[in-house]
Amino acid sequence: MFTKSLNTFMATTVLASIISLPVLASTPQVAEHYQLTFSMTDVKTKQGKMYVALFNGAENYKKNKAQASTIVAVDGDEVVVTFEDLPQGDYAVRYFHDENGNGKLDLNLFGSPIEGIGFSNDAKPSYGPVGFDAAKFAVMSDVANSSSVIYSK
């Protein structure tokens, strides 16, 4: 009697294990996504718009292929944007302050910006544009980054 119950119990346990294995193996992994809060400080004028682009990886940064971008009105000396649902990775932000609202970054005769610009990590250009490595930061959890706007003199 005891042996028959034990055999039934063992058979039921083995059968339950076999049935549940494919279900567990086919359960999709849930990718984790995070949020970036990016602050641009020392905004010179409370007019115009801030054009902000977020890049995932050096190659996309070089090709100007943004993961996400946004345009926000400037209404104070600090502008904050949030990017959500970001997978883990290395990112960089670059932006410009379209002070006159013409929808583009105005340049002088020599090709230098005459409106405010900036990069994540508060990276500064030196005789050329800021590279990805200077502006990059890792997203492995919700993260915040900031930069002060650079205006030509």
- Average pLDDT for all residues: 88
Structural class: alpha+beta
Question: Largest beta sheet, briefly?
Answer: 5 strands, antiparallel
Instruction: Note the total helix count.
Output: 3
Instruction: Supply Rg.
Output: 26 Å
The amount of helix comes to 10-25%
Poorly predicted residue ranges: none
Global shape: elongated
Please provide the count of β strands.
8
Commentary on this structure:
The chain has 153 residues and is α+β, with helices and mostly antiparallel strands. It is built from 3 helices and 8 strands; from the N terminus they run αββαββββαββ. It has helices spanning 2-26, 58-62, 132-135, and strands at residues 33-41, 49-56, 68-73, 78-87, 89-98, 117-119, 137-139, 143-148. Strands 2, 3, 5, 6 and 7 form a 5-stranded antiparallel sheet that branches. The termini are far apart.
Sequence-ordered SSE layout with sheet pairings:
Elements: H1 2-26, E1 33-41, E2 49-56, H2 58-62, E3 68-73, E4 78-87, E5 89-98, E6 117-119, H3 132-135, E7 137-139, E8 143-148
Short description:
The chain is an alpha+beta fold and 153 residues long.
Protein traits:
single chain, 153 residues, alpha+beta, five-stranded antiparallel beta sheet, three-stranded mixed beta sheet, 3 helices, 8 strands, 22% helix, elongated
